[in-house]
Amino acid sequence: MEQMVDDSLEDAFQHRIDAEVKIEPRDWMPERYRASLVRQIAQHAHSEIIGMQPEGNWITRAPSLRRKAILLAKVQDEAGHGLYLYSAAETLGVDREALVDMLQTGRQKYSSIFNYPTLSWADVGSIGWLVDGAAITNQLALTHTSYGPYARAMVKICREESFHQRQGFELLWHLSHGTEAQHEMAQESVNRWWWPSLMMFGPPDHSSPNSEQSMRWGIKRVSNDELRRRFVDMTVPQARALGVLLPDPELRWNESTGHHDFGPINWDEFHRVVGGDGPCNAERLTRRRRAHEEGEWVREAARSWATRHVPARIEAA
Ligand code: 3HC
Prior knowledge:
Blueprint: H1 2-18, H2 31-50, H3 52-56, H4 65-90, H5 96-104, H6 122-142, H7 148-176, H8 180-199, H9 211-216, H10 224-242, E1 252-254, E2 259-261, H11 267-274, H12 281-294, H13 296-309
Helix pairs in contact: 2-4, 4-7, 6-7, 6-8, 6-10, 7-8
This protein binds 3-hydroxybutanoyl-coenzyme A.
Residues 39-40, 43-44, 47-48, 51, 78, 81, 109, 111-112, 131-132, 135, 138, 161, 199-203, 208-211, 214, 220, 224, 274 line the site of 3-hydroxybutanoyl-coenzyme A.
């Protein structure tokens, strides 16, 4: 009898997904749907927080007050995106501290892209143009994800990401059209960030363990490969406008498909970096753990204030 009840709940749930009705926190949902959302939203939040480090590295070394102010605003935005996404994850009944602990103990991931070093000022431009450009490509699709709080969080985040991408493009444009040394700095940076940016969309569809179920549940609306293709098609003309070359000799327009063909991605490198053996993995987590420890007094102050000023939660009726 119990199995029959569960089956009908699952059927009703899938009908809602298929009818494009958003799933809200108080709605019944399969535990596996909830767990998959917690996994993805938490990793998205972790990526935003860890992603502050590579660019934060250049705040004190920005070449002008204007560029420093822009970079400060962008890095602060990323912190806000992390906060937004941890809050969306908490609507699924998880505790933010527990998620942060899973990040810091390596039991949850963050985007591999943030395990690469920022070696020159041009990298701030490449991250904005390529990394945030890739993030927008994915996050625009996620504005239609089936879980209400996640979809709504994406609307605000995408608006801010477009500023992030545009400021990166502008930074690279000035370098690329500056002195010869500045143009070389821009080109050298794009050479390093292009392929890791393509890896941000995840493994190929045929080897993605989550995609099929995630798309059936409407969590993922567009496949990894399709998102990657959209990103390449969007970025190639932008590179032309920038006056930089994308480091792929096989990149070319395919008249018959109406899209760009591009060369093979180094999936060994992807799995190595995701597995913890990237250039900056250890540094990123060490800094994250230290920042968390140093921030304990703020959390303690907030908790003690809350116990004195926030009335006990009124039990749900
Ligand atoms: N880095 C690290 N891990 C990755 C990865 C990457 N670039 N791509 C995939 N993975 C992991 C997945 O998490 C999964 O591992 P898990 O099962 O242990 O979670 C495994 O590799 C297999 O990948 P799948 O394609 O099967 O996994 P998903 O269906 O979750 O798809 C995804 C991967 C497309 C990244 C999806 O998780 C997603 O859309 N996430 C939300 C967006 C996001 O996290 N973006 C990261 C960047 S955020 C950012 O750039 C902020 C900007 O402001 C700078």
